[in-house]
Amino acid sequence: MSSAANRFALLLVTGLAAGCGAPEGVWPGGDVVLVSIDTLRADALSCYGNPRGTSPGLDRLAAGGLRFEHVLSQAPNTATSHATLFTGLEPWTHRVANISSLEHGTPGLHPDFVTLAEHFADAGYHTAALTDGGPLGASWDLLQGFQTVHAQFEDVAERVDEALELLDEDDDRPLFLFVHTYEVHEPYLPPAPYLERFAGDYEGPLLEALDEVRAEQAQAGARPNGRRMLLGRESFTADDVAFLHSLYEAEVAYADAELARLWPALIERDALIAVTSDHGEEFGEHGEFGHKQLHVETLRVPLILRLPGGAEAGRVVTMPISLIDLHPTLLRAAGLEPAKWTGGIDLLALGRGEVDGGRPSFASTNEHIHPSTASVPWQRSLRTSDLTFIESIEDGGTGRHMVTSYEASDVSEQAPIFERELRTTDRVSLRVSGPAQLLGEHFWELEGIRQQILRDGNGVVTLRASDSKTVEELRALGYVER
């Protein structure tokens, strides 16, 4: 059967399902909108406990929808995490890295993997991606399956305007829309009213750095250096760190206010709306700034689902889940079936008690995969109902090997119960049982899945990100120095 015939058959089945009454938790043929607020940690939102009133718009959306309290991402950076979100595969399977080397290439998304957009396009949807570029531009091949693509570094207000214009276009097809913004990503440049509201009392040295970044931004055609605000971070005082965090919260509040213009138009269409993030942000909780490590401040993200007809309005799910679960949830809510290798569970079925929750949550970095950056540590983590277990392994397992463990009840991960560099003999004893064994078995299983999905048995597609536009976007995000 031809591709066109396949799409016609899927639309016919969708129409019949809608006419006969779809199963509970399934809305075939309706619009599906996925919003990714890049770098948004869950506790930055007031509906997740922030006392500073950062997110009244998202608070209202959550009150009319379904909010998940404990959601962990599978990677601490944009490209790797979005690859998991789009494919439903964990980082070790898809092998996408955020940025390994501009000169020698970065592992991108292999075309054999099936993305959300490809699933929806095959079902007759109009698929559209409005992104802020960088790793979500053309250079990582993450936007496979999107028929309409606009990847341009823009203010969140412009992004919302663009989304509203697209919604006004006449198209008989249902819509799968992906909206992405870097607004809350460093270097944190909120508009003046938000700066004054959240950080107006600060009088320290970072004000000068902020002025320098704004001046750089104001130059025609220039992008600011995203790491400039962090120069000299080794000597930051508590007030300096609090100022940076306040700038971040100001950006969250600004993004929330602008995105609030989008929600009424989507609710009027009775769209299924999913709002989340790819990762959080660090403010020195474990010695780093940005998003590099696998601690909770980097991995815990929000997830709000506004379901058609206002189903499940006001419900809060407290069971810990993983961001990888969103992929099968969106597809099955639309009456579509994920690829057989897709990980995760249907969160709506979880809420109905049809599937079991409480599974371990895994996370991993992929920067070590490229030969030019093989010395970059491979970080991986495991979280269960009892334990958090984080590893950092250099040189493919032959170099420095750090292990840290926490009780799951230590929600901020500040009191390790085990923390040391392991010797060879320690590794042998550690790997025969316990969390290391579970980690090893899990990644061995993922390797088997990868080999079966990919024809070439490798699964690493090396892409170049050397065009000047992409380099400038990466510089603005703090990923490259030049």
From TrEMBL:
Superkingdom, taxonomy of origin: Bacteria
Transmembrane segments: none
Alphabetical list of PROSITE patterns matching this protein: PROKAR_LIPOPROTEIN
Domain Sulfatase N-terminal, chain residue ranges per copy: 31-335
Family: Belongs to the sulfatase family.
PANTHER family: ARYLSULFATASE FAMILY MEMBER, ENDO-4-O-SULFATASE
Official protein name in the record: Choline-sulfatase
Primary gene name: betC_8
